[in-house]
Amino acid sequence: MKHTMGVAGLAVMGENLVLNMVSKGFSVAVYNRTYAKTEQFLAGRAQGKEISGFQQVEDFVDALESPRKIMLMLKAGPPVDQFIEQLLPHLSPGDIVIDGGNSNYHDTTRRVAYLESKGLHFIGSGVSGGEEGALKGPSIMPGGSAGAWPYVEPVFTAIAAKVDDGSSCCAWMGPEGAGHFVKMVHNGIEYGDMQLICEAYHFMKSVLEMSAAEIHSVFIEWNNGELSSYLIEITAEITGFLDEDGEPLLDKILDAAGQKGTGKWTVDAALNFGVPLSLISESVFARCLSSFKDLRVAASKQISGHVYSFDHEKETMLKDLGRALYGAKIMSYTQGFGLLQASSNELGWNLNYAEIARIWRGGCIIRSAFLDRITDAFTKNPGLTNMLLDPYFLGMIVDIQGSLRRVVRTAVMAGIPMPCHSGAISYFDGLRTARLPANLLQAQRDYFGAHMYERVDKPRGEWFHTNWTGEGGDTTSTTYSK
Ligand code: 6PG
């Protein structure tokens, strides 16, 4: 009997995806570079299930029904290219290779072209939800060779998470690296959400001087309101978790954050597409600054901040804090979707923003009820240029801005860093300012580099240069971009 799917790479995500596929009635052939791992899996969690393991790549490929569907659950980077080369001699035209790791979208675009040039298909698919998601239902974001999608769709739709209306958290994203691009932006938004929550926690702990138990109660309460989300839910559990000695475990965890790279890639893409992604960028830099633990400890002994004591009504401030977090979250998603829009427009991917928000509604790390609002916004108006201009978000943020300002002001006075909340209000104010000081910036560029400027009293596209010093003549810069 031939198997429906092949999965290569039996680390925990790979194993869990295999078990998920089998639980939905698909038979799976598995391969792992170290065969002992395959044997261990077959003798353990895979026992009695429709799973066969293979030691040789050739036998693994032979065990699959045609067209073959081979999903790679490997470490992103060179291991994916190396395994593709191992597979190639054994594949037939029309076979499908799927990369389910956190690959860089540039690599995926390159691999799609490479495999298509050989008459094969390649799908780069984001898979979000961690180990549990992989087993019970992740959010899946595939893109690449569209011709392969009808063969893969039944499997992916079945194994993905389902939302309240029964729909599956999986949809075709677009050509080239679109699937991995969308997953990358998901991770950037994840970084932003996490940092915003950390800032609210810091504010409660250091400005409001709340106990661990009080903070825990606030997160439980927030998870029952408009902030309800997987990340708030796990934060409630984390803040209530006690170590063996009965003390909060959180207080004993070193404050130096790690990162594997998808946040950095998101910021890199934002810079390349020229999209303001200040909030997500701040969340990446906050991780970088946190990792300078020794430097911060040394600096903390030499630099003291402003003397401050909180003398407002604590309950009112807490209410402001929850609303500020929601407002900043709106700003972060506005920026994240702005990046999706820019990439889609520039690369001709035709991304469906309503659908992206829908498949993030379940299974993935950023899942929350809030995403329904985004689906609504883009369903009502697919041409929405900026998410914040949707009537719901506009009404919300106009109402919430006071809370965001009060929280950021208090944090600044108290000397508590809240880079993402501050970035949120700055973005909001920048967006709603018809005349920014970029007139001065253009004048400076023209002064020192003859880069030229447009005038408010002349049509756009007409460029002027002024001889600001009376020296240096009228030569304009033509070698630099305006
Ligand atoms: C997911 C997660 C996952 C990610 C890490 C976080 O969607 O399931 O985003 O893909 O790899 O869990 O990455 P960092 O190590 O960069 O925080």
Give a structural overview.
With 482 residues, the chain is an alpha/beta fold. The chain folds into three domains: 5-176, NAD(P)-binding Rossmann-like Domain (Rossmann fold); 183-431, N-(1-d-carboxylethyl)-l-norvaline Dehydrogenase, domain 2 (Orthogonal Bundle); 439-482, Single alpha-helices involved in coiled-coils or other helix-helix interfaces, CATH 1.20.5.320. It is built from 19 helices and seven strands. It has helices at 12-23, 35-43, 57-62, 78-87, 105-116, 130-136, 149-159, 178-207, 212-222, 230-239, 262-273, 278-291, 293-302, 314-347, 353-359, 370-380, 391-414, 419-431, 438-449, and strands at 5-8, 28-31, 51-54, 69-72, 96-99, 121-128, 139-144. Strands 3-2-1-4-5-6-7 form a seven-stranded mixed beta sheet, with helices on both faces. Helix 14 (314-347) crosses helix 18 (419-431). The longest helix has 34 residues, at 314-347. The protein is globular, with a radius of gyration of 26 Å. The N and C termini lie far apart (64 Å). The mean pLDDT is 96. The chain binds 6-phosphogluconic acid (6PG). 6-phosphogluconic acid (6PG) binds at residues 102, 128-130, 187, 190, 258-260, 262-263, 364-365. Residues 102, 128-130, 187, 190, 258-260, 262-263, 364-365 line the site of 6-phosphogluconic acid.
Task: Record keyword descriptors for this entry.
Rossmann fold; 3 domains; 19 helices; N-(1-d-carboxylethyl)-l-norvaline Dehydrogenase, domain 2; 482 residues; Single alpha-helices involved in coiled-coils or other helix-helix interfaces; 7-stranded mixed beta sheet
Describe what is shown at a glance:
This protein has helices at 12-23, 35-43, 57-62, 78-87, 105-116, 130-136, 149-159, 178-207, 212-222, 230-239, 262-273, 278-291, 293-302, 314-347, 353-359, 370-380, 391-414, 419-431, 438-449, and strands spanning 5-8, 28-31, 51-54, 69-72, 96-99, 121-128, 139-144. The chain has 482 residues and is an alpha/beta fold.
